[in-house]
Amino acid sequence: MNKLAETARLLALSIIFGGSVAIVFVVINNAREGRAAGLDQATIGLANAPLFIHFSKLALGAAIALIVSEVADFFTNPEKSKCTFARYGTSAASAILVLFFALGLTAPMTDLLPKLKTDAAAEAEFSKLHKLSQPILGTAIALALASIAMSGKRKKPA
């Protein structure tokens, strides 16, 4: 694999995997602390949503970089194995889920933030999007880890 494409791929996967895990960890702990302090769900959502929204922009860039780097590898790598195609699949699936997370879930959540504490319908819609985002991002994290695991050294030509 081209070193630049490989570096971009691994950086993108580490942002998708490691960044997502870190954001989820922070948000879960913030929510736990907020509930312990007696805050309502809307207040906790208002505190945590900007973290996800800003991270989703970074993850969106990483997903695009991942797709570009895998396409570059596909066209420049003459030795493709079943593992390579599996890696392409897990990378593509992870990137697609991140794109959906960023564009289909957090973008509408951004629009709902100003109405979150004053409009019950906005709060219900925000909650629905939040619940949908959990398995989407969780699956993207797992697929990114799988793609990282399929990274390996190739045999050098004799």
Description of the molecule:
This protein is mostly helical and 158 residues long. The protein has one domain. It contains four helices and no strands. The longest helix is centred in the middle third of the chain and has 36 residues, at 41-76. The chain is elongated. The model has no long low-confidence stretch (mean pLDDT 90).
Ordered list of secondary-structure elements with their pairings:
Layout: H1 3-36, H2 41-76, H3 82-112, H4 120-149
Q: What would the keywords be for this entry?
A:
158 residues; mainly alpha; 4 helices; elongated
The structure class reads mainly alpha
End-to-end distance: 17 Å
Mean pLDDT: 90
Instruction: Describe the global form.
Output: elongated
Radius of gyration: 18 Å
Write the element-wise H/E pattern from the N-terminal end onward: HHHH
Tally of distinct domains: 1
Largest sheet: none
Spans of at least 5 consecutive residues with low confidence:
none
> Using DSSP, what is the number of strands?
0
Beta content: under 5%
State the helicity in percent bands: over 70%
Q: Note the total helix count.
A: 4
Summarize the structure.
With 158 residues, the chain is mainly α.
